[in-house]
Amino acid sequence: MQPLPGAAPVVLRMRKHLAGVHLPRPDWPPGTRPAPFNPLAHPPAAHRLLAQAYEVGGGSVAGFAGWWKSVRTDNEYDPTLCFVAVAQDSGRMLGFAQCWTSDWIKDFVISPDFRRRGLGRALLLHVFHAFQRRGAREVALGVHADNPSGAVRLYRSLGMEVAEVRLPPA
Ligand SMILES: CC(C)(COP(=O)(O)OP(=O)(O)OC[C@H]1O[C@@H](n2cnc3c(N)ncnc32)[C@H](O)[C@@H]1OP(=O)(O)O)[C@@H](O)C(=O)NCCC(=O)NCCS
Prior knowledge:
By secondary structure, the chain is an alpha+beta fold.
């Protein structure tokens, strides 16, 4: 059934079991690499990626100052749980994942000009490995069931399963 235009989206909580699971190594697309998150340098570029994605996806993100304050002052913020992928030559940020210490992936985005090349898969595997090293039994996220960029397919292809379906209020 197609959702009515303007109707609130169905949200899926998806999770990936990590305990005792063999995870493939990330296969970074040519010209890309992971980079340690630098809280003094990376937030503006991360915010730009999120703002671009929300613009198309129909949601919204606060302005930079409000967004970054809300992230860095949150009890569940840990800079080692922010993950960045960059272009090898220029250092431009191509992907960003921001996660909470509650084993939750809050935001996950790849630059529009670098999608469908395997970078989302590589960055998500990188995130899974980091949570597995921390001893997390699982890591989870929320996603709109009709995400237009195919996020649900990507998550399923990496073994994420639907743990909960949140229907919009009647
Ligand atoms: C969802 C998102 C992160 C995926 O990132 P991505 O880098 O495009 O992901 P991948 O390239 O690994 O995989 C996406 C698709 O490209 C395909 N692909 C991967 N490498 C490819 C290649 N070299 N050539 C052609 N297709 C390729 C994958 O098989 C996959 O196909 P499918 O959609 O038919 O299953 C990205 O689209 C995005 O940032 N969307 C906006 C933000 C968003 O909605 N985030 C999720 C919030 S929960």
